[in-house]
Amino acid sequence: MPTFPGPMVRFRRFRNTDPPHFADIWRSQVGQPGLAQPVAIDLFEQHIFGKLYFDYEGLIFAFDESGRALGFVHAAFGPDAARRWISPETGIVAMLRLRPEACTDELAAALVEHAEGYLASRGAQVALGGGVRPYNPFYMGLYGGAELPGVLESDTPFQTGLALRGFQAEHAMAIFRCDLHDWQSPVDRRYVQFRRRLLVQVIV
After folding, report:
1. What is the pLDDT at residue 179?
2. What are the domain boundaries of the chain?
3. How crowded is the C-beta side of 92, counted as CA atoms within 13 Å?
4. Residue range 53-93, pLDDT digits in tens
5. Angle at the Cα of 59 (from 56 to 65), degrees rounded to 5?
6. How far is the C-alpha of 2 from the C-alpha of 130, rounded, in Å?
7. Residue 122 DSSP class
8. What sign has the CA pseudo-torsion 76, 153, 61, 115?
9. CB 148 within 8 A of CB 173
10. Which of 36, 136, 192, 204 is most exposed, with the fewest beta carbons within 10 Å of its own?
């Protein structure tokens, strides 16, 4: 497997004792647009580690010589033709996160290279950077909103790591946000007309 060309950095796969490392790295991303915060380890257990197709080998951490986790990359696979299970044909570099103090282009690229190595070892014919439907096995609701947008433009480490490994953007999408804290219903007679014409049912 590739090695990081900087000071002593060690890479290894996920272990059962790693969820706190994962959560600490995620929580260090304060202010990163599109990243769900605050988060508890239980949330990751439910939506990532507890999924039947989660593979320990696909989640790779980088540690410094003191044993501190610097970042991680998570590689996974898209669905089969029937969308009943995963298929190794299409690999996905689903997530990359680095602590702010360890955020270097070299480390980002090295983690992506490890992800590529894992995907190739499982038989992937193509690798995608970032999740987008239907290639979205993890992180829905945790990154970019309810629908995965690929890699956010503001996510510089992830973007850089992919670019340095030769990934190129294929599509772009716009994400619209609305602050609901001070939101007020707009005054527009068209809404009154809509209410008269539409029937809304809430199913719980």
Report:
1. 79
2. 9-176
3. 23
4. 999 999 999 999 999 999 999 999 999 999 999 999 999 99
5. 110
6. 21
7. T
8. positive
9. no
10. 204
For residue 102, which of 111, 114, 93 has the smallest C-alpha distance?
Answer: 111
Higher-pLDDT residue of 25, 190 = 25
Give me the count of residues in the chain. Answer: 204
Over the stretch 59-69, which tens digit does the pLDDT of each residue have? 999 999 999 99
Res 1: pLDDT: 45
Written as six digits, the tokens of 59 are: 């989640």
Distance CA 15, CA 49 (A): 10
| pTM of the shown model | 0.84
DSSP string, 141-186: TTBSSSS--BS-TT-HHHHHHHHHTT--------------TT----
**CA angle (85 as vertex; 81, 91 as ends), nearest 5:** 75
Residue 55 phi/psi, 5-degree rounding, is -115, 120
Q: Cα separation of 16 and 6, whole Å? A: 27
Distances (CA, A) of 27 to 12, 53, 97, 182: 21, 25, 10, 26
Q: Are 95 and 135 in contact (CB under 8 A)?
A: no
Contact between 76 and 88 (Cβ < 8 Å)? no
pLDDT tens digits, one per residue of 130-183? 999 999 999 999 999 888 999 999 999 999 999 999 999 988 888 887 778 887
d(CA 59, CA 139): 13
Beta bridge partners of 132: 135
